């Protein structure tokens, strides 16, 4: 039998928690400290299950998944399809493993086509574009110290394959409900959310998270203005009726409007701090990232692990580029490095 949402336990405790009639949150473990788990959501749809996201292909995640499904009287073979919010390994790769055994259908947003193609058929490092950009950001030392990232190790193990279906903005008609597919680029280029308007539920993936600020633009391909895309996506979902937030990381909440407002305010504050750093003399994205503070603990860049240093420098670059597009700083490329300067 499924359990009610825990009151005094951490959100990442294993189990199968009813968040609404016939909708269950299943936290699956992840192999790192920053994000301890990912929520996947099981929708009971007649005599089958539809999953929102799948978790990462790990033996411990699979066994946790199987135990949770047993409380519903179900197994992995009862899943009819996976509806995936985006390409990141903690959302996509276990679906691939399950499909190899049970021929389960996988659906993914069409905006992820290029990244999937790069990940599924890598001719070189699938993160080469990101590493080249880091070099141009003045972060060559970070690139030199990285080695293979967990994402690259996954890709090298052939954990990525194309989905059975590419989702566009459409409505998915299940037996028991309708799910509207909404494009929300920013976290990744092809990120999507699923909105159940009748039952007032937003399956938000990593677009809106209750406790942390989603990273921006980390994927095999680099595309222009992911931060601008993310802010536009936030404003777009803000126009939806306020509904239950079902996030990929963290505890579900009764509404999402307030959190969207907080995320928009955060990035507005961040843009201001980034502009101030440039005015005070920082020039490359790496130099600006060293001035800024990171995480809720206000850490310096050097206090982060190498992977999160990479994310931090790239996010700083995106904030700087948006400031340049707004006419608040000047951007140039000199001797292979991006530079940003205060307006004269």
Automatic annotation (TrEMBL):
<dbReference type="Pfam" id="PF00753">
    <property type="entry name" value="Lactamase_B"/>
</dbReference>
<dbReference type="GO" id="GO:0004416">
    <property type="term" value="F:hydroxyacylglutathione hydrolase activity"/>
</dbReference>
<dbReference type="InterPro" id="IPR050662">
    <property type="entry name" value="Sec-metab_biosynth-thioest"/>
</dbReference>
<dbReference type="InterPro" id="IPR036388">
    <property type="entry name" value="WH-like_DNA-bd_sf"/>
</dbReference>
<protein>
    <submittedName>
        <fullName>Hydroxyacylglutathione hydrolase</fullName>
        <ecNumber>3.1.2.6</ecNumber>
    </submittedName>
</protein>
<dbReference type="InterPro" id="IPR001279">
    <property type="entry name" value="Metallo-B-lactamas"/>
</dbReference>
<dbReference type="InterPro" id="IPR036866">
    <property type="entry name" value="RibonucZ/Hydroxyglut_hydro"/>
</dbReference>
<keyword id="KW-0378">Hydrolase</keyword>
<feature type="domain" description="Metallo-beta-lactamase">
    <location>
        <begin position="37"/>
        <end position="249"/>
    </location>
</feature>
């Amino acid at each position: 039998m499924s359990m009610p949402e825990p009151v005094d336990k951490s959100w990442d405790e294993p189990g199968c928690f009813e968040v609404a009639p016939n909708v269950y949150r299943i936290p699956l473990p992840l192999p790192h400290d920053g994000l301890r788990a990912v929520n996947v959501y099981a929708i009971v749809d007649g005599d089958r299950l539809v999953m929102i996201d799948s978790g990462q292909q790990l033996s411990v995640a699979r066994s946790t998944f199987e135990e949770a499904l047993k409380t519903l009287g179900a197994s992995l073979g009862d899943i009819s399809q996976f509806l995936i919010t985006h390409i990141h390994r903690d959302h996509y790769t276990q679906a691939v493993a399950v499909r190899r055994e049970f021929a389960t259908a996988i659906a993914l947003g069409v905006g992820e086509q290029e990244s999937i193609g790069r990940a599924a058929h890598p001719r070189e490092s699938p993160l080469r574009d990101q590493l080249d950009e880091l070099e141009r950001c003045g972060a060559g030392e970070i690139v030199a110290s990285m080695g293979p990232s967990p994402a690259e190790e996954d890709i090298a193990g052939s954990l990525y394959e194309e989905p059975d279906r590419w989702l566009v903005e459409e409505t998915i008609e299940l037996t028991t409900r309708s799910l509207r597919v909404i494009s929300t680029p920013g976290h990744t280029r092809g990120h999507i959310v699923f909105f159940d308007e009748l039952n007032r539920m937003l399956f938000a993936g990593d677009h809106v998270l209750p406790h942390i600020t989603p990273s921006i633009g980390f994927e095999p391909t680099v595309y222009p203005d992911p931060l601008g895309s993310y802010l536009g996506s936030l404003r777009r979902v803000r126009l939806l009726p306020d509904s239950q937030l079902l996030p990929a990381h963290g505890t579900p909440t009764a509404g999402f409007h307030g959190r969207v407002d907080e995320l928009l305010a955060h990035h507005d504050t961040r843009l201001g701090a980034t502009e101030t750093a440039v005015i005070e003399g920082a020039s490359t994205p790496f130099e600006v990232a060293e001035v800024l503070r990171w995480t809720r603990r206000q850490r310096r860049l050097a206090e982060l692990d190498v992977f999160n240093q990479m994310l931090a420098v790239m996010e700083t670059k995106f904030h700087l580029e948006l400031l340049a597009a707004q006419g608040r700083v000047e951007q140039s490329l000199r001797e292979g490095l991006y530079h940003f300067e205060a307006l004269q």
